[in-house]
Write a structure and sequence with these properties.
Blueprint: H1 6-34, H2 41-45, H3 56-62, E1 76-88, H4 93-99, H5 106-115, E2 121-136, E3 139-153, H6 155-163, E4 170-172, E5 177-197, E6 200-229, E7 232-244, E8 247-259, E9 264-279, E10 284-292, E11 305-313, E12 317-319, E13 324-331, E14 336-345, E15 357-364, E16 372-379, E17 385-394, E18 397-404, E19 416-426
Length: 427
């Protein structure tokens, strides 16, 4: 691909940047149809501060060690559970309503850019759906469908979209990534009381999941950048992605929980401590490479951009689900329950972040048939959120619903769409 004019080369690079943005958004939106979040409405209503309160089917998701305590065992069937989280880390619904359909001034652009952190614009779409998960005594059998799309655009790319190229500017792709995965997991969980420490019961537990992979897209390499000079451009880049439409694997969660006294429980859990999904069906590698030769006043007529893209079948590849750790404490007695959880991821991608997240939640059971829940969480890659939820409990039947906003209780502060519903019976 050869450009003989400076303006044409500049426009070409702008198009490259816009294509990257569009591809990221397409990946995000396609992931919504597939995939991942929290299917526990009780948990979402408490902003995710739930590990040391989770019982029955929920214990299998948050800390299987809870199943070692009799009061956390809940014989029953979860009929349907679904949670949706579509969010970004920068732009709120209020911002969207304010600027949509208007011509952005330089001040407007700068205000929006200031909302994007140095790590870049992060877009997450995840959905989790479960059906006919069964809890009996210390055991839980669960089935979940999960899908996640996680896209991060470096701040340089965001600035390019808003302001275009300026002389002396370097556009760096470092920090950008795009991952998407969809799978169905079948899990078996068990918890057991093993000992007492200073008269404090200690339980451990685990969940083993067989995973049937549906689809995956993972960018394995994205490097490069371009510098805009007064007389031209210089730079190069490389993108390599692996995709597949089928695979299988496993995942293991483990946890420990202690009854500190009759009022408080503390816990520690590792989600996906061990995991592996082998992708072999329609596995392909996709690559895109480009390079810009420096243009000067003397060689303007020789300036050109070289690009190459390819798609080739590969024998297969493996991915791991992100390992996360949660430490929590909860007040488990009385009409007003509360919980505090510390979430820590150990890698980025597939919805995980290495930034810690702190969540606190309340559940008021003054009217036992209609529990009221609220919570607040901050940190991680999802920003600050307030949550609220409620439900109905009637003769063993339960129905729960929850929503999340943004950094305030106003719906205009939300950075996306976040809700969960769940229904089940106990016996």
């Amino acid at each position: 691909m050869i450009f003989h004019e400076n303006t044409e080369c500049r426009n070409g690079f702008k198009r490259v940047g816009l294509i990257i943005i569009c591809l990221g958004l397409v990946t995000l939106l396609s992931g919504v149809a597939l995939a991942a979040g929290q299917s526990s409405a009780r948990s979402m209503g408490m902003a995710g501060a739930y590990m040391s309160l989770a019982s029955g089917v929920d214990a299998a998701r948050y800390n299987p060690a809870n199943l070692g305590f009799r009061q956390y065992r809940q014989n029953g069937l979860e009929l349907v559970g679904m949670g949706v989280n579509i969010a970004n880390n920068s732009i709120s619904l209020g911002d969207y309503n304010r600027y949509t359909g208007t011509i952005l001034t330089d001040a407007d652009k700068q205000e929006l850019l200031d909302k994007v952190p140095s790590s870049g614009l992060n877009l997450i779409a995840d959905m989790e759906a479960s059906a006919l998960s069964f809890a009996y005594d210390s055991w839980v059998f669960s089935v979940r469908g999960v899908g996640i799309a996680d896209v991060n655009l470096s701040k340089d790319i965001v600035e390019l979209v808003f302001n275009g190229n300026t002389f002396g500017q370097t556009i760096d792709l470092t920090g950008s990534y795009s991952d998407a995965v969809a799978y169905v997991s079948t899990g078996l969980s068990y918890g057991r009381l093993i000992t007492e420490i200073d008269h404090r019961p200690l339980a451990v537990g685990g969940t083993f999941k067989y995973i049937k992979g549906i689809a995956v897209e993972e960018i394995r390499e994205l490097t490069g950048g371009v510098t805009t000079l007064e007389t031209g451009f210089a730079g190069e880049g490389r993108l390599v992605a692996h995709t597949a439409s089928g695979g299988s694997g496993y995942s293991l969660d483990i946890g420990a929980a202690m009854e500190w006294n009759k009022d408080y429980t503390v816990g520690l859990s590792f989600n996906n401590l061990l995991s592996n999904i082998s992708w072999s069906n329609n596995a392909e590698e996709h690559g895109y490479l480009f390079s810009f030769d420096t243009m000067t006043v003397d060689n303007m007529g020789d300036d050109y951009v070289v690009s190459e893209d390819y798609t080739t079948p590969i024998s297969g590849f493996s991915t791991r689900l992100p390992t996360t750790m949660t430490i929590g404490v909860a007040n488990v007695s009385g009409q007003l329950l509360w919980a505090i959880d510390w979430h820590q991821g150990f890698s980025t991608g597939f919805g995980s972040s290495t930034k810690p997240r702190l969540a606190a939640g309340l559940e008021w059971n003054k009217f036992n048939m209609f529990p009221l829940r609220t919570g607040f969480a901050v940190g991680g890659n999802k920003g600050s959120v307030f949550s609220m939820g409620s439900g109905v409990r009637l003769s063993g039947f339960r129905f729960d619903i929850a929503v999340q906003t943004g950094s305030s209780l106003s719906p205009y502060s939300t950075h996306g769409l976040n809700f969960a519903i769940a229904t089940g019976v106990s016996f």
